[in-house]
């Protein structure tokens, strides 16, 4: 328990620094017999990879996954799946200056303080490059979820002040991949892209919100009282780099309401118990009730800006510093598959856990 | 791992239903030699207990904690502390009607579906009565935190649309206990109380936000990449009944900003590295940086309203139902000590974990 | 993880000292709907309790279990089962002298050194009184195992030099409870009883071996590579007070043999794959193969002897000391139900874990 | 929790099959700043590797470890250390026949039954090739233990009926590496080697015992009641391929004795509390008392023999089968570093855990 594992029965243990030899991990809990579609896994990595569009960092990392174990003749065997993604396009010298400097709102200072030593190149372990391992484990989780028919769709719903006011029911979530910002509303997407491009030219960065919807959820997932399904989702999302908040169902908007306004009345849909409204967000008492699960994830603007800032160095001197290098003006587009990956891992873990009752 | 334990080195395992014999738990990780001030623990339980004021449920539960082990001559011995709180003022017959009825937005339906059986009396395990165990474990965590000088202050910052706009720095957090709604601004508190009382008379309920501030935090707490300090705090908060959202630092408000607006520049405060602003909320890269940690927790209006609602019963019939019994129109005042308790548990667990590096 | 929990999906978290208010625990993973036969649980506790026969300690502890949660109308609900057994017949003053003295081969010195404080009365947490909680959790595990038809039979197979040479297949394991030493061979039992009584009169203690057989085991239990079924059994047995060794199948006797002598050849028993011999002890590669699981557990003579011994006290002085009080000259008879209890917990945990593949 | 992780704070998560691309793992809990002496790690792997001597399998696996993360400029950074060892000398076709055949006393049948699919080549995950990962993690644990001055020495003490009767105190443990069977008594070693060579010529295999001694142990390691230090050691040893038993201190020999014969009397050695004898094996009540820890590990003869045996195939037919390929007639010599590795991991985990009390 030093923080590098996620999940209980479906479990990822990850490793890797931004500029080390490789990032990778070990996945446990892949059901034996699962067909491991490596092209699909790779396609998910491609959604996350840098250099994929004009509004992401121009670092061109190919990020090819190489599986090392746990797969035989294309199928999972039930033994742990080890994998690596080799780090290739690291320009470590770009980062030489941060050896001594604590960049504002990065993890340089806290890592140095906690461990007394750090691999400063590209942020080391604190780099979002670590999320590659999550996407690999999440995409295999997604492959497993298909057998239960469960769908997961994340999308960019807010960039800076550009907020998509439509609910997910008013959107065609199949449109998400139709643009580079991954917003299913093409009109809003165009505005977001233009805005992000402006931010990039300003050598700045901007935050936003990713929304996620899980459909066709079985009733009964989640382990109260501490491992409530939404607590696991929240923990998963908050572990992603740059995330500052999580809300599900009506979330913070529920705080304005009265119970008579917020409660979801039950009705019978054939022989199935359903709720007419779904303000609860598909989870009641920490357990899925079969309605769609939906939630929002708040991302801060990433800390890397190419403007001069004041900071201190390891010698305790206050200095002026300007970050060089390549960066994402807005991480939202690349974080969409990461949100989906973490969601998939939480769901499959909950499904496996729930099997004990069956 | 069936969801009833919280924490790794400082760990609570809880048990108990609303109308069973008792609620209680086992606490591991209390440092040997810690003086267990039972009066203090009891005073924290009194902050949580029903019937404490005109705006909480009139159920009069005394909630006396009885320690069973792990304490010798007033001090913790390092062995697990078992404890119980006997359930006394249960009027189970009030709840007879919910044996067959799934109350809207309660956990009746999901528990029944998951387990195939449920103790329906008063919500059983899904009742917030379970949080008693958290307050006991949290108050002992608070006693331990004192030796590091760490302070935790939660308060009601929003009820319905009544929102305290002041930041915690503009408030005197010692004023929180001066009123029954636990808002440190007395003027706002008066409005909130009046509003809650109106909601109560309307047989309805209302949601809100609890804010929490942790001061004097050591640098270095938190275990990236999955057990980031804020992910642990978020998981803790989201496991509390009725919680729908969590944000730390600027949270969702950070999503509007640009990096140059959001970054916290470092400076030297004597020989200590500090940040001029604290938009990050005291945590960078998942590790505490020594600044105040602050966060918000969104509570929905509780599901128990005394108005007629449409729902279904276990036979799959749609029916009209009106809940009787006693309830809280607004859980915020009683949830303040629960938020503090969970926060204290997360902090002490992080401190014990961090000792491995020392 | 401070050592007071056992199991993953079927999990006991225990608490309690010998002379505190109570011992007890929390059980997770009891399948909802399981009928909790409290009389059966009590009968298992009676097999463990002191004062049950002429060769056990005359301390007369009634050890009545009181369930506090997780059971509704006689059935488990899937929520955690809290329970306590009140300590009643403690004569703490008998132990006043051990406040300052480290008794040879007890845990007084190591607890004092590790925690810096200890509840010295009756050994505190290190007392075998703690195993009461194991018997409660184990007896509920046994109730669950019945639905799979799995049988567990432990018995005393060696006391001092009196060793039962017959294999379990030559014994009628239904005869175990027919005598107070719990050896299914009545002739050997009589010798053992006479020997233990002699040891008691000599104010000494004696060790021995408990053997255990698990029958009707499903194929497929156990989680290689670290949680092999026998590794879990070994860990369980070694956690019992006074246990010094564990072997399964031929165990240490396998070390003399050659592979051609030790291997179990497969054959078809109808359409079922079986082995002609079972030197492996029902587990191959850490996974049950459907044959009987059998193993031996070595118990040292307990450290409490009523003879004068040399030791040291907390002031660092060498002294002569004679223990007073009541004790067991041989723990084997009372440890038989404890071995069965731990075995049952391991089995049910493995069954629940294995469900993820189904 | 699917059985591929070992330890709590010092934790190895391993992956890899005998004939897959690679074996490897992720190590957490390496203290930041630890100098990672890769040559030392490699030298430990060389002690384990096949083909190292005339009495081990002639498979010539170079087993070069490649570190992928967690090390910067030669030192551990506190982030997880990922590593791989590429599989090179696999002659998969040698194993083609076992695709359909369940080899006696191997894990073919149980893996197939549990998972419904298996990588049959060379035993797949059940192969002892998996222990490479343990040796890597264990050798880094040994590097860490040096800073506490703790020593670990394992050696072959029994092969077939050739048993070293001397206690470890009568041996010069520095002599262990002086011969290929790793027995510190050169005379006995010569006999063992001759015997193993005879067994090899007979196309058979033979079992034995490895003894292990841990010296300079700090007082206070181990977490009662379930994670007693010897329970963790036992679990570790029993998880090694072919192990059938574990005993510590006098072990099974303690079962003959009376308490007055077995107890270890305390005395003062200067200002240090010590025991005159050490029948307890350095652990009392599950916690180290500072004396040497010593224990024995029983290994069965490995199942691969080159003689004809009767077995069944996947179609449920009884057949005659003769294993071909290369194998170890006796695993003891190569298992010595594995026993040491697992011991080192248990010790360092216990040390890190114990830091919470300091």
From TrEMBL, chains A, B, C, D:
Positions bound to FMN: 125-127, 241-242, 285, 300-304, 326
Enzyme class: lyase
Gene3D superfamilies named among the record's database cross-references: Chorismate synthase AroC
Cofactor comment: Reduced FMN (FMNH(2)).
Protein's pathway: Metabolic intermediate biosynthesis; chorismate biosynthesis; chorismate from D-erythrose 4-phosphate and phosphoenolpyruvate: step 7/7
Record keywords: Amino-acid biosynthesis, Aromatic amino acid biosynthesis, FAD, Flavoprotein, FMN, Lyase, NADP
Reactions this protein catalyses: 5-O-(1-carboxyvinyl)-3-phosphoshikimate = chorismate + phosphate
Cofactor: FMNH2
Entry GO MF terms: chorismate synthase activity
Pfam families: Chorismate_synt (PF01264)
Top-level taxon: Bacteria
KW Translocase (keyword) present: no
EC numbers, comma separated: 4.2.3.5
Binding site for NADP(+): 48
UniProt entry tagged with the keyword NADP: yes
Family classification: Belongs to the chorismate synthase family.
Subunit note: Homotetramer.
Protein's job: This reaction introduces a second double bond into the aromatic ring system.
Protein name, UniProt field: Chorismate synthase
Organism: Carboxylicivirga linearis
